[in-house]
Design a protein that fits this description.
The protein has helices at about 5-15, 20-25, 30-40, 45-55, 60-70, 75-95. Helices cover about 60% and strands about 0% of the residues. The protein has one domain.
């Protein structure tokens, strides 16, 4: 399971950003907020988690669940958010396994013209 630190690093890489200061600026937060995330003093809020998820083309609930799991003080709450994360991860696996390969069974190639994403 990823951590919020890993999501922050992935967002920096995706955006081509080198420093936490530049990431904080892009997220619209102070340098101190980003510093507090790195030291573990604070955990990203749900809005920031969703914004990072959008940047990484992930389900926002996945990153929100991880942030809330890290923030939770009680085992029961932490386990609840872990369950939410696992549901998101399972949904992603099912989705990607259901995408057909770029070639038909007979070897003739075909193109994808549309992609439908369904959520329940």
């Amino acid at each position: 399971m990823k951590t919020t630190q890993e999501y922050l690093n992935a967002a920096k890489k995706t955006l081509g950003i080198e420093s936490d200061y530049a990431l904080a600026k892009w997220l619209g937060v102070t340098k101190q907020a980003a510093s507090n995330w790195r030291t573990g003093k604070n955990i990203i809020d749900d809005y920031t988690a969703a914004k990072i998820a959008d940047t990484l083309n992930l389900d926002p609930l996945e990153v929100i669940a991880v942030a809330n799991m890290e923030r939770a003080k009680e085992d029961e709450k932490r386990e609840y958010w872990r369950t939410i994360f696992r549901r998101c991860a399972a949904a992603c696996v099912v989705f990607f396994l259901s995408i057909p390969t770029p070639y038909a069974v007979d070897g003739n190639s075909f193109e994808f013209n549309e992609l439908y994403i369904m959520r329940n």
